Amino acid sequence: MTINDRQLITMLKKTILAAALFAACTTASANGYLGLSAGQASFDNIQGHLSSPIYSTSQSLEISDDDSPAIKLFGGYEFNQYIAIEGSIGGYDALDGQTVSVGDMKFAAVQAKGMLPIGEQFNLFAKGGFAYFGAEFKSSLYTVSDETVTGKFGLGAEYALTPNVRVMAEWEYMKPELDLLKAGSATASIDAEINVLSLGVSYHF
User: Fold this and answer.
1) pLDDT at 55
2) Of the N and C termini of the chain, which has fewer Cβ atoms inside 10 Å?
3) What is the pLDDT of residues 10-63, one digit of tens each?
4) CB proximity list for 61: less than 8 A, separation 6 or greater
5) Could you tell me which residues come within 8 angstroms of residue 17 by beta carbon, excluding any fewer than 6 positions away?
6) What is this structure's pTM?
7) Distance from the first to the final alpha carbon of the chain
8) Is the pLDDT at 96 greater than 80, yes or no?
9) CA gap 199, 120 in Å, rounded
10) Is the confidence at residue 9, as pLDDT, over 90?
11) Which phi and psi angles does 140 have, rounded to 5°?
12) Long-range pairs of 23-31 with CB within 8 A, sequence gap ≥ 24
């Protein structure tokens, strides 16, 4: 994890804390919710990196299978009609390449959620927070896994079918970087932009 990643995570934590403290003062219409969403994840701008004290390089990587089904279970707490805090767990199906496959891709995330009501039944929303992400890389010669913390963001819209049930469409983004190999002060790593488009439903208590 780079210095920029640490700065981003620190900033996101402060943002979430500030939102939670503000929302705690306005809990008149607070309610919890649970939901499930499913969609398609695309893996773009995949980059391999090699870094050592004497030499560093990066190279774009191409894989034949760069789309994967995605699923997410989420729950949250709406402090009022504008602010919520949300946690989620989910994952993506394996990506199969000619020489290397990527599997066991899972995440757990915490995000602040800002909502903009439009009428009585329709909301636009934006989310920002951080995710703990892990994956496993397999080839005929080796298997390696790694985990990291990365920023996670989202935009979407939701519609209330009933006072308790809402449907939503959402776009989410994160860019995790995982270490494949460490040998002394040399590191080989890989990162990718993960974009997810999904549809979901939630129940509000």
Assistant:
1) 85
2) C
3) 555 555 555 555 444 444 456 899 999 999 999 988 888 888 888 888 888 777
4) 46, 47, 48, 190
5) none
6) 0.80
7) 39
8) no
9) 21
10) no
11) -70, -15
12) 23/79, 23/80, 23/83, 23/84, 23/85, 24/79, 26/79, 26/80, 26/83, 27/79, 27/80, 28/80, 29/78, 29/80, 29/81, 30/77, 30/78, 30/79, 30/80, 31/77, 31/78, 31/204, 31/205
What is the residue type of 108?
Answer: A
Phi and psi, residue 2, nearest 5°: -85, 170
Over the stretch 109-164, which tens digit does the pLDDT of each residue have?
Answer: 999 999 999 998 999 999 999 999 999 888 767 788 889 999 999 999 999 999 99
Which of 77, 72, 27 is CA-nearest to residue 204?
Answer: 77
